[in-house]
Specification:
Elements lengths: L20 H11 L43 H30 L2 H10 L1 H26 L11 H24 L5 H13 L12 H6 L3 H21 L4 H49 L8 H39 L6 H33 L1
């Protein structure tokens, strides 16, 4: 076999005694290859016998983890982040538990629990009574208008009006019977205060009960007198007491109701001022923390507590305003009876009574709903 020369070989590789057929073929291919002048990147010989590459899917598209800026965090930062995430998860679970339990309380259960009490039945009958009054008020206004004044009315209309009027009187008497003996709670409070008072006279005897009654808080004393007067007026309507005595008792009850409403309005204003002051304190604390650079990450526990406290105060302020509006409606209603106003008495008292019934029923409904949801949260 003849020798093969290598054009790019050095001095020591000028000839060879024995070369295989494969090597000769490789040298023939390499002799026609010229290396590129730009060697900054790797390039494959286009004349090589390597098979063409098949396209492969990217590893990033197979759901692998994409590393971001978190890989540069220190160990302390990662621990702080994990603690903050755990705290947020635990707080989220605590917040979701009451919400889920509240959702499990059905409206039927709330109304059933509400109607078990005398106060709840009184509110329900009051809603029915003043709804009927409002219907009769609009009915009279429509039938007495110029459009329907000369038209003949159907016979069932007079019967319906008579039945509704009788039902309104029946609901009024039923409500008065439901609040009978309402003077017992204030009496119990006064007697408890009398028995727990350690004040004694110079002779070693306890102070008289009349002294405790006269020094009782004004709202308690007004509620006690109002309850006694209401019972006397109700007994008069039932026929147990004379009519004149019942009318006088009714007048006294109206005066007590008027005075207690004014006292409750003052207490409501004081209570709302305290709530607003606390609310402003929490808001200022949250604002100071946010302006000082404090975030949920830096101090998550205090931030969560402040937000929950602010939500609680805002909800409490909302129901205080509902109570104030209800007291204003009661004040308008009783003012017509106390001052014996005649102008638009039926219309104003009907509207004020219905508004008071709706507001007080909403507040009582929310109270019973919260009471039913508490056992599920524990």
């Amino acid at each position: 076999m003849s020798s093969i020369s290598f054009p790019y070989a050095g001095h020591g590789h000028a000839s060879s005694s024995s070369v295989s057929i494969g090597d000769s073929q490789y040298n023939r291919l390499s002799a026609s290859y010229e290396p590129p002048t730009d060697t900054s990147s790797f390039q494959m010989n286009p004349l090589s016998s390597h098979p063409p590459r098949t396209p492969r899917t990217s590893i990033m598209s197979n759901g692998s983890h994409v590393f971001g800026n978190d890989i540069y965090d220190t160990k302390a930062d990662s621990e702080e982040k994990s603690q903050a995430i755990e705290l947020e998860d635990s707080d989220g679970e605590e917040d979701e538990k009451p919400d889920a339990s509240k959702n499990r309380v059905r409206r039927e259960d709330v109304w059933r629990d509400l109607l078990k009490s005398a106060n709840g039945r009184d509110k329900a009958f009051k809603l029915l009574q003043y709804s009927m009054k409002m219907y009769l008020l609009f009915h009279v206004a429509v039938t007495s208008s110029r459009v329907f004044r000369g038209q003949k009315r159907p016979p069932w209309e007079a019967e319906l009006t008579h039945r509704l009027t009788s039902a309104i009187a029946g609901f009024s008497l039923t409500r008065k019977c439901l609040i009978l003996f309402n003077w017992l709670p204030p009496l119990t409070s006064i007697l408890a205060q009398h028995s727990s008072d350690s004040y004694t006279t110079q002779k070693g005897k306890q102070k008289p009960l009349l002294h405790t009654f006269l020094h009782a808080p004004p709202p308690v004393l007004l509620e006690f007198i109002n309850g006694l007067a209401d019972d006397a007026a109700t007994f008069s309507k039932l026929g147990l007491i004379g009519r004149l005595t019942g009318e006088r008792a009714g007048r006294l009850a109206d005066y007590c109701w008027f005075a207690s409403t004014l006292v409750n309005l003052v207490e409501n204003s004081v209570e709302r001022s305290v709530i607003l002051d606390l609310q402003h304190q929490v808001e200022n604390r949250l604002y100071s923390e946010s302006m000082g650079g404090a975030t949920t990450k830096s101090n998550p526990a205090i931030n969560k507590l402040d937000e929950k406290e602010l939500a609680r105060l805002q909800r409490q302020d909302y129901w205080i305003q509902i109570t104030r509006l209800k007291l204003l409606m009661d004040l308008v209603f009783v003012s017509y009876d106390v001052f014996r106003l005649k102008r638009a008495k039926g219309q104003v008292q009907t509207f004020a009574g219905l508004a008071s019934a709706v507001l007080s029923s909403a507040k009582l409904y929310d109270k019973h709903k919260n009471m039913l949801s508490k056992p599920h949260t524990h």
